[in-house]
User: What shape does this take?
Amino acid sequence: MKKPGMRETDLYPPIKALLEGQGYEVKGEIGAADVVGLRGTENPVIVELKTGFSLSLFHQAIERQAVSDLVYIAVPRGSGKVFSKSLRSNKALCRRLGLGLISVRLKDGFVEIHLDPLPYKPRQSAQKKARMLREFANRVGDPNTGGATREGLMTAYRQDALRCLSVLKQNGPTKAALVARATGVESARRLMADDHYGWFERVSTGIYAISPKGLDAITHYQDDLDQLRKMPGFSPTNPTDNG
Assistant: This one.
C-alpha cells in the first residue's frame, strides 16, 4: 500500500548504490526505463520503480524485456502479514514472468533482492492433472457455466451426494450398501458418514436418512436431480431391503 508522501524517486538512491556496489554504472530515466545499470559488455540491468505493486508496474517491466533479460521491479518494503502475503504472491508472479524483484526499506535504505530474473520453466503436477481429469470424467453433463463463481458449483462429489439423497427420499432410511448399489456411488457410505453438506443423518449403524438440510437440497437441486435420474445405472427406487 502506498504511504502518503511516498515517491518513486525515494527508491532510486538505494537502488543506485546497490548496483554501483556491484560494479555497474547507473543512470536514471534512460528512455522509458526508470533505472539502467551497465557493466562492461554485459546486458543492461533495468529496474522499474513503483510505490507499490500494480498491474502497470508489471506491464512496464514486461516492455523492458524487449531490451534486456535482466529486468527487475522495485517497491518499498512494508511490514506485517498483508505485505508478506503480497510479497509472496507477487514473487510467484515475477518468477512466471521472468522478472526480478527488489524491496527497499526506506527508513534506512536497506535493499533486498528477493528474486533474480530467470527464464520460467513451469513444473506440471501429475497429481493435480489426475485430479482434474478424474473430476472431468466423473462429472455428469455440463452443469456449470465457465467463469462462474466457485461457490455452489456442481461437482462430481455433489452429484454423488444428490444421488444418495434421491435414494433416501424414495425409500426412507436405508443401508449404505444398498444406497451404493442403487446409485452406483461406491463411496456412498463414506460420503454420507462424512456428511460434508449436512444432508444426511445416521439413524443406526450403517443406515442413513435425510436431514432437514437435505430436504431443502432436494428442492433446491430438483432440476439437477431430474438430469441425474436419467443416467444409466441409477435406480433410486430400492427394490429390496430398506433396513
